[in-house]
Amino acid sequence: MRGRTLLVVGLAVAVLACSIIFSSCRPGGREARESVETMAGRDTTREAALMVRLYFASPGGDSLAGETRELASRPGLHERVEGLVRELVRGSRNGGVALLAPGTAVRHVYLDHRGLMTLDLTPAFRDRFRGGSTAEYLAVGSLARTLFANLPEVRRVRLTCAGGPLATLRGHIACDQPFDRSDLP
């Protein structure tokens, strides 16, 4: 049964590939040629831009301040989240304070059907974090608030680190339960 299914799927893929190739050879097959070119490699020089909202610590370090920035539009959830986290690590352009430790990056992202996002970050998020209770609260808030602002399908965020549970960042904020919008500064 499994072999038959694989055979049918393989034939369907072959037929689709052949139809794309042959239609690109026809006069007026411009869209098909573009599809083939897209499959071969995306031209990133013409990517659409997307306005995003990022949250950093205010210059006084006592609250979060939003900052609008233009990023390349990415199709996949992982790529979009990766871009947001990368910009949070880079820091503010308007005098705000970056809260995520250098080296923090996305390992995995999973979004379930109820809107729970599980975000697995590199160990740098936990191991290189420096700060007290306010900085910890703002760091978690910066990350979660940025995700909520830019990904409307996300209702709650669970943080993990290096593939395992993250009980806390530095002992002040419990990270073992998902955060929702009402939990944030």
Question: Your description of this structure?
Answer:
- This protein is of the alpha+beta class and 185 residues long.
- It is built from five helices and seven strands; from the N terminus they run ααββαββααβββ.
- The chain starts with a helix and ends in a 5-residue tail after the last strand.
- The model is unreliable at 15-40 (pLDDT under 50).
**Largest sheet properties:** 5 strands, mixed
Find the count of extended strands (DSSP E, 2+ residues).
7
The total count of helices amounts to: 5
Report the uncertain regions.
15-40
Regarding quaternary structure, what we see is single chain
What is the average of the pLDDT values?
A: 82
N- and C-termini, Cα separation: 54 Å
> Radius of gyration, Cα only, in angstroms?
21 Å
What would you call the structural class?
alpha+beta
Q: Order of helices and strands, N to C?
A: HHEEHEEHHEEE
Q: In one word, what is the shape? A: globular
Q: Helix share of residues? A: 25-40%
Q: What percentage of amino acids are in beta strands?
A: 15-25%
